[in-house]
Design goal:
This protein is mostly helical. The protein has two domains: 39 residues, no CATH class; 136 residues, no CATH class. The chain is 39% helix and 6% strand. The chain has seven helices and two strands, in the order H-H-E-H-H-H-H-H-E. A two-stranded parallel ribbon has the order 1-2. The longest helix has 19 residues. Bound molecules: 2-acetamido-2-deoxy-beta-D-glucopyranose (2 copies). Keywords: Signal. InterPro entries: GDSL (IPR001087), GDSL_lipolytic_enzyme (IPR050592), SGNH_hydro_sf (IPR036514). This is GDSL ESTERASE/LIPASE. Belongs to the 'GDSL' lipolytic enzyme family. GO terms for molecular function: hydrolase activity, acting on ester bonds.
Amino acid sequence: MHPGVPMVTVLALMALMMPLFSGAVDIRQLRQLAARHNVTCVLVFGDSSVDPGNNNRLPTTMKGNFPPYGKDFFDRHPTGRFSNGRLATDFIAEALGYTKIIPAFLDPNLKPADLLHGVSFASAASGYDDLTANLSQVLPVSKQIEYLKHYKLHLSRLVGGNKAQNIVKNAIFCFEYGHQ
Ligand SMILES: *[C@@H]1O[C@H](CO)[C@@H](O)[C@H](O)[C@H]1NC(C)=O
Ligand SMILES: *[C@@H]1O[C@H](CO)[C@@H](O)[C@H](O)[C@H]1NC(C)=O
């Protein structure tokens, strides 16, 4: 993995995002910083804390696509997020001005334009080791990274190889394993 955005930038962005939930974040400052560092999109890896519905497409019982999940989501729609509303990564994408939600890479309704703003490869009940994920038939980190390669291919077809490379190189990579 080669996050092109320097660690310092990521840390600075994270620091600016901290007060996001208290509503105290300076969105303008955050966006200026992201623009200055050519940040392109958000790519997410992890577990249920950031899975927007990849597990819906997997033969696992670890799903969050039924009520009361999503009761505070747009249209009260259960999406697969293990949350009543949006996930932290959705708010990050919104703060950066990209999109209101980061969709699941495995979502069959994923639109080409969604690839430009970022997607999530996260899978609820996943862990760093393949065994944890295997037990519940979800995506281990290794598989999530394999899907990143698929993502790059789709993106290349959409915008061309050079632009795709630039987008991935300047993406913010979020790794979130919160529920282990
Ligand atoms: C952002 O992109 C511009 C134009 O390509 C480049 O000159 C600049 O060095 C880049 N900034 C960073 C921090 O990579
Ligand atoms: C999970 O374990 C089974 C049994 O050991 C194996 O056949 C299968 O390939 C593994 N699946 C993954 C996704 O690693």
